[in-house]
Amino acid sequence: MIPELGHFSLIIALALAITQGVLPIWGATQGNRVLMGLARPVAVGQFLFVGLAFASLAYSFVTSDFSVQYVAENSNSHLPVYYRFAALWGGHEGSILLWTMLLATWTLAVAQFSKHLPQDMVARVLGVMGLISVGFLTFMLLVSDPFQRLLPAPADGRDLNPLLQDPGMVIHPPMLYMGYVGFSVAFSFALSALIGGQLDATWARWSRPWTTVAWVFLTLGIALGSGWAYYEMGWGGWWFWDPVENASFMPWLAGTALIHSLAVTEKRGAFKSWTVLLAIGAFSLSLLGTFLVRSGVLTSVHAFVTDPRRGLFILVFLLVVIGLSLVLYAWRAPKVGLGGSFDLVSRESFLLSNNVLLSAAAATVLLGTLYPLIYQAWTHGARKLSVGPPYFDAVFIPLMVPMIILLGMGPIARWKQISVGEIMRRVRWPAAISIALGVLAPFAMGKWTPMIALGLTLAFWIMTTVVVDLRRRMVRDGKVKGQSRSYYGMQLAHFGVAVFILGVTLVKGYETERDVRMNPEDTVAVAGYTFRFDGVRQVRGPNYTAQQGRLVVLKGDKTVAQLYPEKRDFDSSPMPMTEAAINSGLFRDLYVSLGDPIGDGTGAWAVRVYYKPFVDWIWGGCVLMALGGILALSDRRYRIHIRKKQAGMESPAGNAVPAGDSPALVHRSKAA
Amino acid sequence: MTPRQKKVSIFVGIVVVAAGLVAWLVVKALNQNGGINFAYTPSEVFDKKAPLGRSFRIGGLVTDHSLKRDKGGLTVHFQLTDTVRSIPVVFTGPLPDLFKEGKGAVVDGTLESDGVFHATEVLAKHNEVYQAPEVKDSLKRAQAEKAAAATAITSSAK
To answer: Has domain B39-157 been given CATH number 2.40.50.140?
Structure first.
């Protein structure tokens, strides 16, 4: 009964989504206030029914209703309840439902927090979001129904993939999807600006906080995924350039370009058409990412063959969304105008260059990810191929080096123009200090390579330019002058990039990875630590039996840690799982995992013993970036909106923005 | 040219040069060793169709009773087959959880002049249902060739 209720809710939600996608947009073109006014209540209704469908599926999972095929394929009655719930997004159908659920949530949030916007704008934005939802709901109802019954019902489910039975599963996918789906808001704002022909900077101002929220979620989602892979995959890597990872990284790159471009468009009125294009790009990559990962197109082209209708729908949907928005863009963008002018050496051009570099990086990752598909289509499946990490490293690093150099100079440069001499004067100390430290520090650490020196120099470069800029702006005539939170947020996020680079550089440069064969009582020395293997015993978990190894880590005579890596055999699945054991520290991780038993009767095992210096700084840097975003969101001008709304004041759009940010001031173009 | 046009043309020039640089970077990155790994079947490797000294991958089944381990170390030897031909593979390191004789595996590495494939990475399938496309492809082609060879024999016998 409950699954049918869920299915029925999806149908009603589809009807509401169609209403939301058609009538308000039509009303906006006709100036019909009644039709425009429909947008909000219908969006609330759609949220309620998608929510009901989501709750129904969650109920089927938690109560282990294996007559639902999707539940039977992805859950098992022995699973702990939190994994039974998280198993909802353990497969294709449920992931799409989660996506739709989050889209409805974002739509509700936009409906709720847009009281200060003009009615036609709100009608168009919610309308576009409704149309996206129509696509997803139709997809589920036609070819990807999560409520499909399976009769007769099996006695037990096939179980959630053991790899996914981890706390990461509960939090990582929703976070990532919040980011993906969040870019739909910027996309909808951009499209509604194109439809309405209001291509001044106002849409940028309104969509900016939403984009930042989405970016924060995506940043944390990717960091969580990377951390999860690090301890779950059992080989201590944190990024593999796997198609699935790339699928989340491409929208992040485009989204990062977008939040910077939005800032310029809002403050200076420049790059208006470029920003619209980025908003379309970021969301298109999110869509592509969702479908690429979930449809299995990338791991195997045969996913299209197993369910050709699904593949066809995805292809058509992507073509419609991307194609229509690009056509709309080509039609409307020429009317946008050039916006504020700026010199070749100015903050605008630094930001624009970085936008181009980030977009180029996204494009090269896209090429590497899709290359096997393109090649196979081109040669009619003559030979399979894969694009390896060497490709991605070789294109990504050269693009990121100039990006980071410009990252340090952007905040220091003035808007509109700055002389080359002036910028050189402002960055000479950061440049000197970072190069000196970057080149000398590796000697002190015992190993010098060009890559370590380069990485350290770039990290120190960001740190020193952040400090120099903070000082330059805040200390005037011996007095401390406070800055806006959005400024602090930016600097914190940039500092996070530096911490991230430090982590990557140091772990790549100084890690020790030893794969060794260990008999009980054997010891191995790694990076000044002695690891003693005490053998393996059997332990019982909630739904698995594990071979649990014990390794004692000694430094000199002192015991530093006892590590218990496991090899788990799940009751319901023939697939064993490696569970690494990690002793984390601020400056290093000690990482051990069990390989395979040698099986010669001596109790010997293949053991991975890794020393990973500064590895946690990688995720620490991501967290700082996300915190920077949150700090920027708490800026005064956004809080003013809320306070005004609470006071019941209907404020005309734009009044809440400090006068200095008004694009009107920058439209005077300067003759160079 | 007005100053604005001049600036725009300088900027366009920079963008064109940058795009050229990126394109060069991409081509170079794809062509380096390990950039693109083509998949070959054990039969193709046996027929010397695979490149020597350049990395590629082979998909196939691990031949039964072929897994041997060196004494004292982590070096393993096994054969990878598409049911027609087998290729000897050597690898040093822990094997993945789902690596088993008779099951599918994909190996990345280079073919040395001794005819042994030196694997730098061994991949086993992710779960019970999933079979790596490289493995599927190898088996399918071997079957097709067997069938073709069988028809050839029968027709020549006539």
So the answer is: yes
